[in-house]
Amino acid sequence: MTTTMTHQLNAELSRYKQRTMSAVTSNVLGEYRDIAQVVSQLQPDFPVHCFSPDDLRERVQLFLNNFPGQVGFAVKSNGEALIIEHLIESGIQFFDAASIAEIELVRSFHESIRILYDNPIKSRDEIEKAYYQYGVRSFALDDEIEFEKIQSIVDHDPSVQLSVRFKIKGSFAAQDLNTKFGASPEQAIELLDKINHAGYKAALTFHPGSQCYSPSAYKDFIYAAAMIAEKAEVKINMLNVGGGFPAQYLNSDTPPLLDFFLAIEEQFKRYFSRDECELVCEPGRALVVSSGTLLCRVKHRRQDNTIFLNDGIYGGFMEQLVAFFKLPVKVYRNSKLVLDSADDFKVYGPTCDPTDCFQESISLPASVQEGDYIEFGLTGAYGSATTTRFNGYSSDKYVIVKKASHFPE
Ligand SMILES: Cc1ncc(COP(=O)(O)O)c(C=O)c1O
After folding, report:
1. Which of 82, 100, 167, 230 has the most CB atoms around it within 10 Å of its CB?
2. Ligand 1 nearest atom to the CA of residue 205, by list position
3. 44 alpha carbon to ligand 1 midpoint, in Å?
4. Residue 378 and residue 357 share a domain
5. pTM
């Protein structure tokens, strides 16, 4: 072999290594003008999450301009590095992290941005890491055991803020989060008393449930927070009204976000003083849901209006198990929109598992066929975040789209 040939081979090998390395380290496949261009150029045979930075910026602005307090983001709803980066650029004011991995991710973009560690149950190792390694000073809890765990690590550091997560009776949302977490008002009073005596900053936090139906739920929780604080006779430094703000899925009949903000503002003013108590929210869904769509391909169509997609319940559609959120759809064939009359289809995902199926039929153009692409809107929250590797499939690839498809919201 000549020296030139060896050089050429080495150069080729190094290019190959670079290509495979970047494929491993990055799941973002590139930037495209619109979905039609993704379909025509990338022609993906795997599911692709399509992210619109413009939409995300608009949503962050909507919150920053109208929510009457500080606005954070619940990382659990979309922990993609790409999204975190754009949220920081858009001016998000803090992050709610549920794990050390989420804290590490946020810290990798911003050394000092405020992080609230709002998972009420944490191991001692996690608390220690968050406090010493990542400088976290705000923790949520809902029982005395967690209080003692935290105290054993942070001692009596007065810069530590402890938020008591409380719950009230009632059903307020598509996904009730208060079956797992939340102190009763009576327990919350006792916890506030302990926090106060130990010299920490006391705070209250609640979550009305994800995809909350009504602004009055926040009013009920804020009223309960005021009663808890009054009975405990403890100064509340921060009231965190959680997430829960709804998305406008096709089958959702929820008021606009501004009605939620107004209700919170009125009720907060009635019972708390802005000079003494900080008001914050930490939405996930409502901030990111409309900035993401999920582009899938039809693998197979049976004669009885059953279709099989290359993504499903174990991938980007896991939330469909929790509640049927009817997603808007568009169908593309040869990069053109298919617009013929609609019919109802039974839709399955790609795995060898019968659970991998949408709960309800989906209305699609009657001619939908193998090889077509279906773009599902409103998948930016709890989409890629919950994907698994079941059966060797996964739904973790992203593209950036400059001109997003127009879907409701
Ligand atoms: C503590 C906490 N904050 C915020 C959120 C975000 O909720 P959502 O996506 O409904 O806005 C969650 C969701 O599980 C949560 O557990």
Report:
1. 167
2. 1
3. 32
4. yes
5. 0.92
Q: Going by CA atoms, what residue is nearest to atom 7 of ligand 1?
A: 243
Is 13 part of any domain? no
- Counting DSSP H helices and E strands in the chain, the numbers are 11, 20
Count of domains in the chain? Answer: 2
Whether 41 and 71 map to the same domain: the answer is no
DSSP state of 189: H
Closest residue CA from atom 5 of ligand 1: 243
191: exposed, middle or buried (C-beta count within 10 Å: 0-12, 13-18, 19+)? Answer: buried
To test the pocket of ligand 1, the residue of 70, 264, 282 to mutate (highest count of ligand atoms within 8 Å of its CB) is: 282
pLDDT tens digits, one per residue of 270-314: 999 999 999 999 999 999 999 999 999 999 999 999 999 999 999
- The number of angstroms, rounded, from the C-alpha of 369 to the middle of its chain's C-alpha atoms is 32
Q: Which long-range contacts (CB under 8 A, 24 or more apart) does 133-136 make?
A: 134/100, 134/103, 134/104, 134/107, 136/97, 136/103
- Could you tell me which residues come within 8 angstroms of residue 191 by beta carbon, excluding any fewer than 6 positions away? 141, 142, 143, 144, 147, 164, 183
Per-residue pLDDT at 409 exceeds 50:
no
86 Cβ closer than 6 Å to some ligand 1 atom: no
The C-alpha angle 32, 35, 37, rounded to 5 degrees, equals 55
Any domain includes 7:
no
DSSP letter string over 143-164?
SHHHHHHHHHHHTT-TT-EEEE
Residue count of the chain, please give it. Answer: 409
Same domain, residue pair 217 and 322: no
Residue 241 CA to ligand 1 center (angstroms) comes to 10
The answer to whether residues 202 and 345 belong to one domain is no
Contact 360, 317 (CB under 8 A): no
Task: Please indicate, yes or no, if residue 14 is contained in any of the structural domains.
Answer: no
Task: For residue 268, give its domain range.
Answer: 53-288
- Give the domain CATH number at 93: 3.20.20.10
Q: What pLDDT is attached to residue 322? A: 86
**Same domain? 257 vs 375:** no
What percent of the chain has a predicted confidence (pLDDT) above 70? Answer: 93
Q: What is the pLDDT of residues 27-86, one digit of tens each?
A: 999 999 999 999 999 999 999 999 999 999 999 999 999 999 999 999 999 999 999 999
Question: Within this chain, do residues 262 and 151 fall inside the same structural domain, yes or no?
Answer: yes
